[in-house]
Input
Amino acid sequence: MFWVHLLLLLIVIFIGMRYGGVAFGLLGGLGIAVFGIAPGTPPVSVMLIILTVVAASATLEATGGLDLLVEYAERLLRRYPNRIVYLGPFCTYSLTMLVGTGHSVYPLLPVIYDVAYKKGIRPERPMAVSTIASQMGITASPIAAAEI
Output
């Protein structure tokens, strides 16, 4: 039975590569139907947390709050350009932790690039560390779905 499942998995992967991501979902449902496995309950609490975070960040964007936070971070980064490798990740971590989603740091990445480039620092270094720090901020955020 192991080899049948492995073969079925490989077939599903190859079909999914050919037809895209929707095919994976449909073939997964087909696999559940063929093998008679009962689907689990949907993660309603996680979906509601994601909906709340998206609504909160959209409100923050619509009211100009995100622009204000990015402006404060930009002032800090431009005031201390020598420390961009440390302050860039600190700003993205803090912003993600406060907002609850890593998508909030997109307006800050061009600022990090500009400050590093003007200081003669290779921009990919602070930007790479900043994106990783942003993802670590999700685990520290009390409103992110990663806390469940």
Q: What stands out?
A: The mean pLDDT is 87. The chain has seven helices and no strands. Residues 96 and 131 are 10 Å apart (CA to CA). Residues 2-35 form one domain.
